[in-house]
Design goal:
CATH architecture: 3-Layer(aba) Sandwich
Strand content: 15-25%
Shape: globular
Protein name: NAD(P)H-binding protein
Number of strands: 11
Strand order of the largest sheet: 3-2-1-4-5-6-9
InterPro entries: ComplexI_NDUFA9_subunit, NAD(P)-bd_dom, NAD(P)-bd_dom_sf
CATH class: Alpha Beta
Number of domains: 1
Number of helices: 9
Amino acid sequence: MSLPILVTGGTGRLGARVVARLLEAGAPVRVLTHSKAGPDGATLVPGDLTTGAGIDAALAGVGTVVHCAGSAKGDEAMTRTLVAAAERAETRHIVYISVVGADRVPVTGRLDRMAFGYFAAKRAAEQVLEESGVPHSILRATQFLESMLLVARQLAKSPVIPAPTGSRFQPVAVDEVAARLVELALGEPAGLVEEMGGPIAYLTDELVRGYLAAMHRHRLFVPFRMPGKAAAAVRAGAILTPDHATGVKTWEELLAAEAH
């Protein structure tokens, strides 16, 4: 019987889909969680990557970890905790989800950190893995369609919508990213693999206007130019991956489903 696969962040938007797809593939799955509730068919194991509590026990006997847990402030520290435990447990493979642009968005000033700290956190976590002795695979994906939908919903609550000029996004469906992570988890460690993006790149206002049209709403847009080196890099296409537009689902298809 194959060794269990541990999924961190296994109850989140991406992690839950990873768990579901692993179970569909017949893999034995553990989910690292603070909660007593979780997906049917998976074994729930208590653990906290911010403190390290329970991590050694969670990794005992595990062959592969799919690391989906993280935050803008905690990605590096949590990954460092996981890697240290994985080295002790002689874990065979860590699969990590990063973001397109992690190595191309310069996060230097205060404004950069406020708006784009997520990219720096992901790159720092990548470096923890790269400098470790743990075999790993790193997938950089663009923003999720579902996350962009949440942003559009929030913006639509205001009668006036600020729209940063020149910023493009190439959103990809979360389930498509989950499928790729599962493929990596069931394979051999591959290091930094090819990036993954959605099929179409959109300006920020195009995404929001599309949402408003689908919901039959109207709002006033106020364009503005975000300052800082990170924002300039985004305008230059640092978070796009046109040569790896492997996603299939479009923003329009997501909105059509949302409208119904």
